Amino acid sequence: MIYLLIALGLTPGGSSTVNIYTQTIHRTTELTTRATQLTIKQHNNKNKKQQQEHNNNKNKTIDNKKNTTDNKNTTARTTQLKTRTKLLTTRTKQQEQHN
After folding, report:
1. What pLDDT sits at residue 36?
2. Which residues contact residue 14 at a Cβ distance below 8 angstroms, ignoring those fewer than 6 apart?
3. Is 1 helix (H, G, I), strand (E, B) or coil?
4. Using H for helix, E for strand and C for coil, what is the string for 23-85?
5. Kind and range of the H or E element at 95?
6. What is the pLDDT of residues 29-75, one digit of tens each?
7. Which of 11-15, 41-45, 82-86 is the least confident region?
8. Rounded distance, CA 52 to CA 44, Å?
9. What is the DSSP letter of 97?
């Protein structure tokens, strides 16, 4: 503590000034640390939210692609069934005419 007094140019009797100075530095450091932690927390929350939105959009894209594929498959299957129905209808008519 003597070195601190000499560095500040204070006499050894100025210890109350040193205590006030030390408390001020401590409080300033504490406030700076809290502000930094808050900034980091806000930044992390923002990144987390952006990542969640990205993942949600990615999942929606995957779902949309899957739905598109499902719709194409359903359309193809429907077309196959219509073709088979026409063939069966034609065969049935031919058999009826033949009998």
Report:
1. 92
2. 5
3. coil
4. HHHHHHHHHHHHHHHHHHHHHHHHHHHHHHHHHHHHHHHHHHHHHHHHHHHHHHHHHHHHHHH
5. helix 15-98
6. 888 899 999 999 999 999 999 999 999 999 999 999 999 999 999 99
7. 11-15
8. 12
9. H
